């Protein structure tokens, strides 16, 4: 479960609201100056030796806590309503209540802060927690790591050290962290069209261009190349990865800077970026790419994919959308559907060194326990159980006896006949807890997924896992040390960054729509001058410093 979100605004309002929260706390709720909140308590009262020595067991007594998901789109499903969470609720005497955003996460969080009514757990993007931490609203998790060992065991020191705050303490419990490649980016091809055109070679950028021209000639109603929402990069950034080795789309779409010789350098000064944009522009000028790529919605992209109206589709979330389109198409025609190809590369490059995108061992987002929680240690114990083998099996794969029974030597569940015999019901039940997986363990869960797939005959294996295992996990690059390096929005570098992002998107759009190759070069050259005027070098220096600090953190034991 991975969703790309726009960076929310309102940091000033959040700062003011946090000030109101801290000012309004009574002495029992407010940490003393220079002291962190003690584990297992609210306030600064030290835990007793007895409490510190005995680990609390989830299921030993009824326990409940609240969770607020800090996303406009997120509404938490009712805990205990579906088959899987109902089983956990009963077996572990656990209740999780929701605090929903109501479609406006920033306003909702401000309301909770000002009213002094924070939930027990906040779940959201990692860059949203620092202001809360600075104002004493989060509980440090370090005292629990050895007592409840799943997170420390599965995440490891490198990941946990990367998540530590400026004070050296850990406040975030990561979600979907991993020690192996992950990712869904790449190129998807319409199977029926490809077969009808004689299965031509589709490996290099020249091959792709020739194929798209052939599609346009033979199938005028079909979109030759679908890049998704190009205003957010998507397939346009994927094409950038084709023009250099170890050059993931993330350098353009996420970092907007190119690491060279140990430091970040200007994207617009990168000859590879110019070459890629000249190629994209040529596709657009010749009608080989979606003509409304800069304005289309997600729903429009999905509709085209689901109805088979694209010949080649590239995106950073290609598997997520194409798998659903594939399932739709083969219902009516078993010869239809989609397949993935090894990433396209410029002729002369080593195809095995083409990295389409990045993966981040830190995973997606995180959960944090607030100082409003009366029993933070018990909450941590519950989260730690969820991220461990038993919790992963019970919440994601269901209660023992339904789709699995017993485990193998590696602790992975042995799948039952029911798992294979009832795919539709199984998928429905498993999907029901997708939005209840707050502290997912991708390392463990992917092992279970692969085991499940290998247990099936090839024709019955899931489209997603087949191509993840064969292609996408092998063509994503580890950029963990370059994650979480963004400056705060209200800092000088943060203000530069926001202006730079606006300029970058503007220049990218202009380059795609340019009337000639020469104009593409002129647009990018002007963009570079404007970027330097904004002070982008100062931003690059800041990002480089944070990148190197992260590398040092990851090496620390």
UniProtKB/TrEMBL annotation:
Residue ranges with Low complexity bias: 33-48
Record has Zinc-finger as a keyword: no
Pfam families, A to Z: SBP_bac_1 (PF01547)
Start and end residues of each stretch annotated as Disordered: 29-48
Coiled coil: none
Gene3D superfamilies per the UniProt record, alphabetical: Periplasmic binding protein-like II
SUPFAM superfamilies: Periplasmic binding protein-like II
Membrane spanning residue stretches: none
Keywords, alphabetical: Cell membrane, Lipoprotein, Membrane, Palmitate, Signal
PROSITE patterns: PROKAR_LIPOPROTEIN
Signal peptide boundaries: 1-22
Protein name as annotated: ABC transporter substrate-binding protein
Record lineage: Bacteria, Bacillati, Bacillota, Bacilli, Bacillales
């Amino acid at each position: 479960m991975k969703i790309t979100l726009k960076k929310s605004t309102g940091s000033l309002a959040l700062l003011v609201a946090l000030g109101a929260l801290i000012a309004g706390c009574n002495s029992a709720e407010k940490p003393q100056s220079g002291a962190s909140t003690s584990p297992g308590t609210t306030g600064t009262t030290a835990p007793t030796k007895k409490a510190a020595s005995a680990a609390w067991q989830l299921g030993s007594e009824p326990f409940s806590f609240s969770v607020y998901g800090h996303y406009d789109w997120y509404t938490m499903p009712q805990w205990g309503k579906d088959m899987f969470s109902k089983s956990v609720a009963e077996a572990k005497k656990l209740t999780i209540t929701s605090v929903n955003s109501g479609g406006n996460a920033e306003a909702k969080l401000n309301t909770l802060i000002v009213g002094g009514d924070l939930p027990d757990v906040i779940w959201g993007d990692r860059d949203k927690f620092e202001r809360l931490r600075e104002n004493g609203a989060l509980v440090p998790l370090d005292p629990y790591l050895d007592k409840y060992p799943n997170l420390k065991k599965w995440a490891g020191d490198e990941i946990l050290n990367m998540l530590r705050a400026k004070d050296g303490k850990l406040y975030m419990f990561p979600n979907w962290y991993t020690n192996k490649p992950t990712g869904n980016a790449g190129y998807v091809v319409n199977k029926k069209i490809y077969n009808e055109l004689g299965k031509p070679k589709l490996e290099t950028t020249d091959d792709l261009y020739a194929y798209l021209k052939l599609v346009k000639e033979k199938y005028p109603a079909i979109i030759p190349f679908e890049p998704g929402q190009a205003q957010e990069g998507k397939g346009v950034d994927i094409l950038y990865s084709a023009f250099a080795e170890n050059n993931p789309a993330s350098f353009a779409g996420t970092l907007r800077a190119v690491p060279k010789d140990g430091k970040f350098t200007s994207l617009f000064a990168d000859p590879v970026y110019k070459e890629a944009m000249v190629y994209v522009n040529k596709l657009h000028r010749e009608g080989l790419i979606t003509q409304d790529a800069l304005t289309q919605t997600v729903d429009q992209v999905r509709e085209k994919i689901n109805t088979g109206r694209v010949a080649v589709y590239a995106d950073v979330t290609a598997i997520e959308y194409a798998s659903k389109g594939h399932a739709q198409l083969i219902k009516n025609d078993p010869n239809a559907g989609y397949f993935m190809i090894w990433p396209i590369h410029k002729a002369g490059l080593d195809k095995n060194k083409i990295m389409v995108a990045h993966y981040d061992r830190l995973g997606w987002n995180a959960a944090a326990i607030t100082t409003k929680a009366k029993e933070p240690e018990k909450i941590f114990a519950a989260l730690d159980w969820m991220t461990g083998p038993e919790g992963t099996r019970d919440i994601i794969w269901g209660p023992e006896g339904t789709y699995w029974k017993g485990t193998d030597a590696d602790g992975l569940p042995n799948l039952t006949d029911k798992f294979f015999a009832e795919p539709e019901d199984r998928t429905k039940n498993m999907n029901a807890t997708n939005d209840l997986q707050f502290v997912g363990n991708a390392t463990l869960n992917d092992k279970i997924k692969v085991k499940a797939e290998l247990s099936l005959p090839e024709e019955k294996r899931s489209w997603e896992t087949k191509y993840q295992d064969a292609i996408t996990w092998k063509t994503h690059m580890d950029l963990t040390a370059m994650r979480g390096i963004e400056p705060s929005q209200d800092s000088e570098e943060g203000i530069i960054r926001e202006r730079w992002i606006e300029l970058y998107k503007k220049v990218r759009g202009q380059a795609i729509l340019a009337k000639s190759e020469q104009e593409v070069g002129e647009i990018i050259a002007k963009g570079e001058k404007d970027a330097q005027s904004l002070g982008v070098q100062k931003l690059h220096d800041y990002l480089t410093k944070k990148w190197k600090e992260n590398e040092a953190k990851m090496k620390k034991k």
